[in-house]
Structures are given as C-alpha cells and as structure tokens.
Amino acid sequence: MPYQDVPKMVVKRLPLYLRVLDNLIKFDVEVVSSGGLSEITGFSAEQIRKDLAYFGAFGTRGCGYNTEFLRNRILKIIGLNEQTKIIIAGIGHLGQAISRYNIDKNPYIKIVGLFDSDSAVIGKKIADITVSHINVMAEFVRENAVKVAIITVPADNAQEVADELVEGGVKAILNMAPIRLKVPESVHLHNADLTVEVHSLIYYSSDEAQREMNEREIANDR
Predict the structure, then answer these.
(1) How far apart are alpha carbons 47 and 199 in whole angstroms?
(2) CA–CA dist 76, 65 (Å, integer)
(3) Are 58 and 50 contacting, i.e. CB atoms less than 8 angstroms apart?
(4) Model's pTM, two decimal places?
(5) Domain 84-191 maps to which CATH number in 3.30.70.1150, 3.40.1110.10, 1.10.10.60, 3.40.50.720?
(6) What angle, rounded to 10 degrees, do the helices at 8-26 and 67-78 form?
C-alpha cells in the first residue's frame, strides 16, 4: 500500500511509538510486545499491530518487536532517518521556546533558520542560530531546500508568511497562529491552536453536576 493511502491518524501515532521506542532503547530493552507498547501508549495491542501492518511485518508472533529494528524502520517511514531541516517564522516567546527545545532536545530535526520582523529580535542568537528578517525567508528556503516550517507569528501576519513559505518551496507547515490558513493542495498544513486546546480542556475540569446544569441552561435558551 502506498504511504499516501495510510490514514492520517496512523501517521500521527507513529511519532508516539517512536518516542516510546527511544525510551525503551535508552534503558537497554531489546524486545517489546504489542501488549507492552499498549501498556505504555494507551492504544490497544490490536490497534498498534494494525498501524504497523500498513508498512509491513516488523515482529515475530509470540516474540514481539526488536526495539532497534522497529525504531529504525519507523524513522525511515516518517523520513527522520536523516535530519529534517526546519525553519521557524515568528520568534516571540512561543517561537523561542520551540526553537530552544528542538535545538537541544530533538535529535531528528535540525532548525536551520529563524525569522521575524521585529527589530528587537532580529540579530539575536538562539543557540548558534541568528534571527534573520522575514523578508529574506523565502530566498533562504529556496537556497537551502527547506521543506518544513513552523509558523508562530500573530494571526494578522500568518497568511502572508504562509504564502512566502509556499513560494519558497515548503511542502509542510505547522501553523500555531490562531487562524485558518489557505495553502495549495500540494502543501500539507497542520493547525495547532494552543488556546483552543486549553479552552476545550477546561470543559473536563468542571464536575459532572456543573456540566449538566450548563447543558440544561443551554437547552432552555433554545
């Protein structure tokens, strides 16, 4: 089966499996069963076996998966067997936090460019990377064959930045600006709105009685 036919939710679970395998290898665990992966991830053993089966046979019935082998195969499937070059547009507090974390903690990607329009941060260094003006971003993307970008600029500027990235040749964008962007079908766009995530989380912080009362009030207002 071509990888493009794999369900999106399966693709989203692969990095979670990768993280678990990294940790198991760190503690010298050589073999893990689907049941063992299930206990750690919370996904059913059947789901894990089904997810991995999209990409071939990786384990031995009754023996489980070799952690090193499975990790290396998942790295290749995702495309992380070689460091992926990424740029970040928007070096405010969020952009800086993402930059520092990934430069220091993520061995699978390489932040190669940081861009902003604020003179207060242009020229500033984060690790060994100097923040450049966003006007040179598209040219940088072209010259360095960057295919992945993260947007953390304010909503008013996000579409313009996305257009520049597409013009430069970026093929995948993680948008963390609180706005829906328009990109060509050839560009994969993933939205991650932290405000929406926090607001939806608050729903679960209310006790059941409070939620039922709110729902009755809403029903009465109809």
Answers:
(1) 29
(2) 16
(3) no
(4) 0.78
(5) 3.40.50.720
(6) 140
For the stretch 194-221, pLDDT in tens is 777 787 777 777 666 555 665 555 556 6
Do the Cβ atoms of 67 and 31 come closer than 8 Å?
yes
Distance CA 181, CA 169 (A): 16
* Element of type H or E holding 65: strand 64-66
Please report how many Cα atoms fall inside a 13 Å half-sphere around the Cα of residue 177, on the Cβ side: 25
Sign of the alpha-carbon torsion through 67, 68, 74, 77: negative
pLDDT digits (tens, 9 = 90+) for 158-185: 999 999 999 999 999 999 999 999 999 9
Q: Is 134 helix (H, G, I), strand (E, B) or coil?
A: helix
Q: 3-78: which CATH topology?
A: Arc Repressor Mutant, subunit A (1.10.10)
Let me know: does 181 contact 155? Beta carbons within 8 Å: no
Q: What angle do CA 202, 205, 208 make, to 5 degrees?
A: 120
